[in-house]
Each structure stands twice: as structure tokens, then as C-alpha cells.
Design goal:
Layout lengths: L2 H13 L11 E5 L3 E6 L13 H20 L2 E7 L8 E10 L4 H9 L17 H13 L3 E5 L2 H20 L1 H8 L2 E3 L6 E2 L32 E7 L4 H20 L3 E5 L6 H11 L2 E9 L12 H4 L3
Helix pairs in contact: 1-2, 2-3, 2-7, 3-7, 4-7, 5-8
The chain binds flavin mononucleotide.
Flavin mononucleotide (FMN) binds next to helix 2 and strand 9.
Protein name: Nitroreductase family protein
Organism: Actinokineospora terrae
GO molecular function, one term: oxidoreductase activity
Length: about 325
């Protein structure tokens, strides 16, 4: 393998560590000598839960951010063209290798965090997140063209918690959604989906934030009383905004990981139009995801498909 080919291969190996809805990994890459194309893999979009592929695009944006970071840390500057071909809307982005780059120590730390970052569905400690860490998370989102609205006051956290609960209830009544989710959870030995080991613990009824039911049969435990919540938003709501939100998501998650913080995304309110609208009104922008953020005991990383399965010939 020539240096560039092996560098691109290594960057794709990092990119697939990105988060995606239910670990569906809805991406494909085409590696060229001087560029990498990122495609939406339609066959992996959850058509009931995510009919317009909004969440899949957010996951692909997270993979794009990770790809850029890995290339930067290996000394390559990239120029990214978002949605470069109107005739092919599933070609989400092209990252052109565009000369040499000298990474910063912080970028190196973020790229190391790619391998240990994971969704943590366990209860967090009742320990507040300090202001400098909050500022770093918000800045990470802003740099990628999105915003992270942080909330830690009981009234606003309660308002978002209400929307999460309402959406979770609506989704629980939708048998097609429940069936679709079942295909992606609780498996073992697969390279996609959410394995039982990562499904967390059910929460006791007094818990403010309703996490998704992911098939854990463990006894319920109490969760933190008042979590720090973040709502990831963009001003617009186009496909390009969904990709920006995804890039910001991974930037925030890696920053959180470096700061020793645990995060679990909650997308129930995004999947029900009425609660998504209400969440958008609450924060005054297009909402893409809710994040529960705090200090916690580590969870586990989840498997990924090998690079050979996500690279187009
Ligand atoms: C757009 C999006 C929505 C998500 N929604 C949820 C959610 O509602 N509940 C949850 O527990 N995890 C959610 N996740 C986290 C994924 O399940 C997780 O990223 C995936 O299973 C891979 O695991 P990892 O993050 O530990 O690498 C979401 C992730 C993305 C990108």
C-alpha cells in the first residue's frame, strides 16, 4: 500500500467508530488517490423510525468529522465539499486531500478519544459539570456550524424531559417502529446494532429522563436527579444542516471524552414530528438530538463492520 492509500484506509477505520442511530452504520466510502467520497447507505436507513434519513445523515456527518480528524492527525489538510452533486443527493460529501497539515496536541488527543468514546447509558453521578468543560462543548459545536444549547436548570431540563417522555410513549405505541428497532438491538456476535452489553439498565419510575428501552432484562436502577442536557441544533434544517449537526455531534462527543465526561444521545423527541417541533420552539432552532451529559462509570464500546464492507470498489 502506498502512504496515501494506507493513510486513507486508516482514516476510514477511524471514521466508522462514529456514532450512528442504533449502530446502523449507514455509510459507504469511495477511496480515491486524492480524495474520499462519503455516501449514504440507503439500505441501512431505518425507514419507519427515520423516514427522511435525517438521523442517518447526522451519523454520516459524525463519520465525516472523524475522517477529517484522522486525516489531519496523519498530516493531511482536507477541503470538504458538502453535497457536491445535485443529481446524486446520497453523495453526502467529498474530502479532498489538499496538502500538508500540522496537527495540534489537542487534535491528537481528540483523535485518540475516537477509540474509547462510547455511548454511556448507565446512571451518571450527581456531580456538576464545571463551566470550562461546558464552554469547550459549546465551542466544539459552534466550530462545526451548529449550536449546543446546554440546560441544567430544573424548569428547562424538566421541559425537555417531558418531550422525551411524550415521544417515547408515542413511539412505544407504534408497532412498526417497535418491530424495526427490535431488528437492531439485543444481538450478540454481530458487527452492527446495539448489543445487550451496551443496552444500559432500565431506570426506576422516579427518573426524570426516559432512556430508550433497549431490551435489558437487568433490574431498574435510579438515575441522576438532574442531568445536564444539551440540545444540538442548527439554524436551518436542510440536508447540509443535518451533516453539520453530525459533524458537531462527534466534535462534542470527542471533546466530552477528553474531558472525562460520559454522554448518551436521546433521539425519541426527534422521531415524533410534534415533539421535534416543540423542542425546536423551546430552543429557537432546528433540533437534531438531545444529549445527556455527566460524569459516570465507563460503559462499553460496540462493534463495527470491517472497512472492507464499507468501501466501494
Ligand atoms: C442520530 C443519533 C441518534 C441516536 N439516538 C439514540 C437514542 O435515542 N438512544 C440511545 O441510547 N442512543 C442513541 N444514539 C447512540 C447510538 O445508539 C450509538 O451511537 C450506536 O449504538 C453506536 O454506539 P457507540 O456510540 O457506543 O459507538 C444515537 C446516535 C445517533 C448518531
Amino acid at each position: 500500500m502506498s502512504t496515501t492509500v494506507s493513510t486513507v484506509h486508516a482514516a476510514i477505520t477511524a471514521a466508522v467508530r462514529a456514532p450512528s442511530p442504533f449502530n446502523t452504520q449507514p455509510w459507504l466510502f469511495a477511496a480515491h488517490p486524492d480524495r474520499v467520497d462519503l455516501w449514504l447507505d440507503r439500505s441501512r436507513v431505518m425507514t419507519v423510525t427515520d423516514p427522511d434519513a435525517h438521523e442517518a445523515r447526522v451519523g454520516c456527518g459524525a463519520a465525516l468529522h472523524t475522517l477529517r480528524l484522522a486525516l489531519a492527525v496523519s498530516g493531511h489538510r482536507t477541503e470538504v465539499h458538502m453535497l457536491p452533486d445535485r443529481a446524486r443527493p446520497d453523495l453526502l460529501a467529498t474530502a479532498v486531500l489538499d496538502g500538508k497539515y500540522r496537527p495540534t496536541p489537542h487534535e491528537r488527543a481528540l483523535s485518540e478519544a475516537v477509540w474509547r468514546r462510547h455511548t454511556n447509558r448507565r446512571p451518571f453521578l450527581d456531580r456538576p459539570v464545571p463551566s470550562p468543560a461546558k464552554t469547550a462543548l459549546m465551542r466544539a459545536a459552534t466550530v462545526e456550524g451548529a449550536q449546543l444549547h446546554l440546560m441544567d436548570q430544573p424548569a428547562e431540563v424538566g421541559a425537555v424531559a417531558d418531550l422525551v417522555r411524550r415521544a417515547d410513549h408515542v413511539l412505544g405505541q407504534d408497532l412498526a417502529h417497535v418491530d424495526e428497532v427490535r431488528a437492531w438491538i439485543g444481538h450478540q456476535g454481530r458487527s452492527d446494532g446495539i448489543p445487550v452489553t451496551a443496552s444500559g439498565r432500565p431506570s426506576t419510575p422516579d427518573t426524570l429522563i426516559v432512556l430508550r428501552e433497549l431490551g435489558s432484562s437487568a433490574p431498574a436502577v435510579p438515575f441522576e436527579r438532574l442531568p445536564l442536557l444539551g440540545v444540538l441544533t442548527t439554524v436551518g434544517d436542510t440536508h447540509s444542516d443535518h451533516l453539520a449537526a453530525g459533524q458537531a455531534l462527534q466534535a462534542v462527543l470527542l471533546e466530552a471524552c477528553v474531558a472525562g465526561l460520559a454522554v448518551s444521545p436521546l433521539s425519541q423527541p426527534i422521531e415524533v414530528p410534534a415533539t421535534r417541533d416543540a423542542l425546536g420552539l423551546l430552543v429557537g432552532a432546528a433540533a437534531h438530538l438531545v444529549l445527556r451529559i455527566g460524569y459516570g462509570h465507563p460503559g462499553v464500546t460496540t462493534p463495527r463492520r470491517p472497512v472492507s464492507e464499507v468501501v466501494l470498489d
